[in-house]
Please model this.
Amino acid sequence: GLMRFLKVEHAVAAPGALIGASNFFELAVATAIALFGPESGAALATVVGVLVEVPVMLSVCAACNRTRHWFSFQTAG
Model:
């Protein structure tokens, strides 16, 4: 995607994808609890969203490893 177009090296692009995929989950939980209370459906939904984060992040890691060849424009060494 964008990182490849910008010719960002894989060692930077992969962590960038992970950070982009995981930002603001904790903030979403805190906001939902503050606005709707801990017993609300919104709070439950955001907590479940955080629980889903781990498998999603593992999938992103696998995708980063599978697309390493996209960054072949880099010189070795």
Remarks:
- Residues 41-66 form the longest helix (26 residues).
- Residues 2-71 form one domain.
